[in-house]
Amino acid sequence: xxxxxxxxxxxxxxxxxxxxxxxxxxxxxxxxxxxxxxxxxxxxxxxxxxxxxxxxxxxxxxxxxxxxxxxx
Length: 72
Hints:
The protein is an alpha+beta fold. The mean pLDDT is 82. Strands 1-2 form a two-stranded antiparallel sheet. It has helices at 12-23, 27-46; strands spanning 51-54, 60-64.
């Protein structure tokens, strides 16, 4: 049985607002957190490493990686 997921699209300021409300921090603090997380992900993936984010041991949230690029 597979789960059905609905995509939710939001820009960074909308995400900052949601995160701030969910964890009880200011918008500025939430923005700093999101900027740090995305910067770290970009740095790691750019170096060729793969990141897997999991909600639990059995439910994988997402995997981020940089695809190999062919040179022609």
